[in-house]
Amino acid sequence: MDELWQTRVRWIGFLAIPAVVGVMLVLTVFVVQAIANAGGGSIGNLPDVLLPSAIWLFVPEMIWLCLVPFLHWAQRYRGRHSMLWLCFLVFDTGGIFKLVYLFRHILPDWRGKGRYRRVPTIPPTPTMGEAETEL
User: Fold this and answer.
1) What residues contact residue 101 under an 8 Å CB cut-off, 6+ apart?
2) For residue 133, is pLDDT > 80?
3) Contact present, 105 and 71 (Cβ < 8 Å)
4) Contacts for 72 with CB less than 8 Å, ≥ 6 apart
5) Does the reported pTM lie above 0.70?
6) 37-44 long-range contacts, Cβ below 8 Å, gap at least 24?
7) Which of 51-68 are b and which e, b meaning 16 or more Cβ less than 10 Å from the residue's Cβ?
8) CA dist 25 to 43, 46, 50, 117, Å?
9) Nearest alpha carbon to residue 9 among 103, 124, 115, 113
């Protein structure tokens, strides 16, 4: 996998860090609301602050996870079912096929496994006539 795709796949991991923080913020809001409801207390405007923050942290990862399969399909797809994957990626509303594509094509391409394995190329050897003209 070339350096551009190495970077694109690494960004999935980089953006996952704030996304996890966003999920933890949402869970914190739910826990604090449950505690406040059970005890009859008030939590003030905590959900009004934490929920938008959580969304801002989570959305970039979701956008990137939706874009990377299209970028990979357009540039690096190796397989026999190109139009089928295009239809799945375009008409998929839940994102399941984008995740399947991630595991079936993008991660093997990143690791150089399966149909995306890197085959070393042997440099061409000069023929007898070419070797004489180089001297």
Assistant:
1) 69, 72, 73, 85, 88, 89
2) no
3) no
4) 5, 101, 105, 106, 109
5) no
6) none
7) eeebeebbeebeebbeeb
8) 15, 10, 6, 40
9) 103
